Amino acid sequence: MWFKRKKEAVKEVVVYEDDCEFDFEKMNAFSIERLRDQTIIGYTLDEKEGTVVREWFFGCSLERHKELVYEFNIVIKDKDNKWTIK
Which of 11, 25, 42, 77 might form a disulfide with 73, Cβ 3.0–4.6 angstroms? Predict the structure, then answer.
């Protein structure tokens, strides 16, 4: 699983809290941005029909968003230098 609360695994797709972690590589993340009070993480899934683009909507504080962007930059953006961060 590529998302978990720090103390337990979860299966929800929409989360509204700051106490969480993401594994950007495992979830095949390619973007992260802020829209109002939500962070949106773009990622891909391999399905029978081919690769599908999805978005994860995550309600969190602006401070937590900035932390996630920092983590994303380290894990994904710096890895191959082609991603856009907002």
Answer: 77
